[in-house]
Amino acid sequence: MVEKIAVEKKVLSENDRLAAEIRARLQEHGVVSLNFVSSPGSGKTSLLEWTLSTLGQELHIGLIAGDVQTENDARRLLRAGGDFVRPLVTGGACHLDAKMISRILAEVDIDALDLLFIENVGNLVCPSSYDLGEDMKVVLISTTEGDDKPLKYPGMFRRSSVMVINKIDLLGFSDFDMETVRKNALAINPELKIFQLSCRTGEGLDAWFDWIRELPTMKR
Amino acid sequence: MVEKIAVEKKVLSENDRLAAEIRARLQEHGVVSLNFVSSPGSGKTSLLEWTLSTLGQELHIGLIAGDVQTENDARRLLRAGGDFVRPLVTGGACHLDAKMISRILAEVDIDALDLLFIENVGNLVCPSSYDLGEDMKVVLISTTEGDDKPLKYPGMFRRSSVMVINKIDLLGFSDFDMETVRKNALAINPELKIFQLSCRTGEGLDAWFDWIRELPTMKR
């Protein structure tokens, strides 16, 4: 076990080195990058579809769509817009890592981009340990998952800058309490910026779009 | 990376050895064991609460409740019943392993048990690689997660014997299609036994309870 931990530390520090390179390269080109993380089925792809189709004309957005298996999400997202959408199939691995991102960035034109979105594998645990060189992690949680998730998976909420609470149209169909989830999340990470929205009805998306619109100016 | 894979293989084969020991010991005592796996928030704890409170008087059930952080689930389950409920907090790890189970089984009386339930960490990827010595994996999926999940996380559905589709009371509030999820799951694993139920309304639970009731006779 000691040997395993030592090797994992080595892998993580190699990952951090590569992530720092990616971060420097993106900053050099004025690209703001977001790493979207959540449980399977929280709505990452739906939120990204809305975002590309609404903002794809006014902003230059590149997207890397990670999945354990299938390129289905990438196909959905291709139809939505964006400067490019690249699938990234891990073939079983439980998270994306900096090497996978680096390989894709070597093949695409990031010079014209305002934003790079990365959709991680659906997993609330492992992706929290792997820096991809992003500016911020955006963690999604849906109202159908339960308001206790920040307490049970604290690593992800601690390392995220933004929490998107999706499926607010289903509030009232479970014991999920909005005040409880906010309190639980802010107890883990008082700096979290929080959005409440529904990718089904569109409610709350305007505030999200406005926030995204302002991101490219972050670095100017 | 080669070094990491070699070490992981060693860890997995050590895990398999321990899991085989656990399996032999449970079989010797006539205990049937189920390993419950799913995304965070699919309803493992709710299904186990129902099962303990309904069957806890007629069957001897032990439960190990795994979580990345907090003993909240174990506390909920303690109130429901069962011969024992033991929390197992991984402190960040993304799956349970055979060593953790072995350590708990050394401290409890399994002689009187009919059934051992293990609630794994909420994660559709990593727990699929770790045999805990169980007779079967039971994978839960909720209708709010999307009907594409078996295709995107095939490892877990391939290694499970049973699929429980939870939250059927929320059918119609998303694009989730029951026939599609069944087709997708059976394409990965044609042997899957499938239950459809709602832990909120109780619909469909009787068939689940009847199946559980018959498990102890499996080994007699």
Distinctive features:
homodimer; 220 residues; alpha/beta; 8 helices; 7 strands
Protein model, in words:
2 copies of one chain form a homodimer. The termini of chain A are far apart. Helices cover 39% and strands 18% of the residues of chain A. The mean pLDDT of chain A is 94. With 220 residues, chain A is an alpha/beta fold. Chain A has a 7-stranded parallel beta sheet with strand order 3-2-4-1-5-6-7, sandwiched between helices. Chain A has 8 helices and 7 strands.
Radius of gyration of chain A in whole Å, from Cα?
A: 17 Å
* β-strand amount of chain A: 15-25%
Tally of helical segments of chain A? 8
Structural class of chain A: alpha/beta
Summed over residues and divided by their number, the pLDDT of chain A gives a mean of 94
Ranges of chain A where pLDDT stays below 50 over 5 or more residues in a row are none
Terminal residue distance of chain A: 47 Å
Largest sheet of chain A: 7 strands, parallel
Oligomer: homodimer
The number of distinct β-strands of chain A equals: 7
SSE series of chain A: HEHEHEHEEHHEHEH
Strand order of the largest sheet of chain A: 3-2-4-1-5-6-7
Measured as a percent range, the helix fraction of chain A is: 25-40%
Shape of chain A: globular
Summarize the largest interface: chains and residue counts.
A-B, 41 and 40 residues
